[in-house]
Amino acid sequence: MKSRTPIPRSQGREISYDMAAKTLSVSKASILNWVKSGELTCLRRGYVSSASLIHFQDQIAGKTRLIARANKLYQTTKQRPVKTSEPSDSYEAKLGNTQQNKEGVYYTPPSVIDSILSKIDEDVSNLTFFDPCCGTGNFLLGALRRGFKPENIYGQDCDADALAIAKSRLETKTQSAFNTLTCADFLNPPSPDPAHIPQKKFDIIATNPPWGKKYTRQEKLDFAKSFGLSTPIGSSALFSFQAFAQLKDNGVLALLLPEACFKIAAFIPLRDQFLKVDIVALENHGRAFPSLITFAHSIVCRKTERPLRTSISCTSKNRTYTRTKASFARLPKSIFNFETPPKDMEIIEHIFGKPHITLKDSARWGLGIVTGRNKALCRDAPLVDDVAIFTGSDISKTGLKSPSRFLNPDLSRYRQTAPETLYRAPEKLIYKFISTRLVFFKDTEQRLILNSANMLILNTAFPLSHSQLCFLLNSDVMNFIFQKIFGTRKVLRSDLETLPIFHLFFEKHAQLSEAALLEYLGLEFTDDSYQILA
Questions:
Q1: What residues does 255 pair with on adjacent strands?
Q2: Higher pLDDT pick, 304 / 29
Q3: pTM, entire model
Q4: Which domains can be identified in the chain, with CATH numbers?
């Protein structure tokens, strides 16, 4: 899995250049370059915003030339000296950061493994267990603790050195030879080898697949086609589909996956696959890895068809409750928002039951300007021809901050821009892109925005005005919907296009207020929560 370093609690919304460099496995010079180019947002001298760092990891790192460039401080051969008593920890510490990034190599804490395997509520003493990405053997040792017999435990990995450590650890634990490990790529299996792992199916498959293993787009597409998919998907999803293929009917699959697999549109095919089987449990393990910002989520499911009403155990932040598959299937993009309790889902389903339209195919969308060199091209004081430019942090639902940055309005100077007609539209909505809340502002002065903000312009046939839509998207109830369904740190167009737009409300209310909107929706807000009116 791809290495990322957590942001210390004390740093809140900012993170030092040094910590950002460690998080991205690059040099501090690279961080400075990305601040200058606008890919990272500088809050004050020596610090970038944690939100821009998260956006950089999710949307830019590994997808453009920025990470692909050689970074001499972090070559594959670089080792990081770490004091440790566990051979697996030592091996992981010695892996070069470039190699970890390329192969998606990071190993799962035993406490997380035990929590996942505890969801398998049956006698496992005579069942076969397989970890197809076993690394140094953490899941295999977890299988021993769970009660699997050593002769029924199989492991596979493409790293021969990691497998040697896994073999040594297992043999030390069992005091016997362990010959059920195979060196191979799970997505490119070797010819069947009776002495090791034949092309067989298993009772239980549990693994932490590579989250960011680097394949070319064509490789991803070829793999996806082998699973009947038409578009390329990430390595974690590819390994999950392959695990399903090698699982016996009625077998159990337990996976530790990045949060994105449960929420982002690109992973809809994987979520649809999960919805076809019996989902036993979902759990949010938080920031489970020493060098990871993204949350780790697990899913345990049984390969058997079950109706959508099947109850699922959902655990997050030490709270456990049950949800149904139907509650996920009915959401936009089949999002697994399992941290949202049933009471809140009842409110959401009530809201979606009201007549509404969506923004799908109803607006033109545009990105803010990527200058490529913010420090050089954006100025604190304007030159003669300069105009004001606004960032996401300048936008609030009550107004726009006074301009503090200026640049030349000639868009041909910059790395990436939307069509100039969008910036110069008589009316447009601009909104924060990196945010946990919806924050929109109606612009009538043809303002320019940087890439921490986006914009939309409604089609003339849309029944709402920009002012009406701005009110609705900024409303507390719409933010409740957005946060309870998507729960992301970014405001994505694809998410905005699924939100319910209550057009009939505006036919009855000229004066817009939160109270009037709640009355129309049949809701009241008491004790910090919404209630459905009788």
A1: 207, 299
A2: 304
A3: 0.76
A4: 9-91+93-100 (no CATH), 107-339 (3.40.50.150), 363-502 (3.90.220.10)
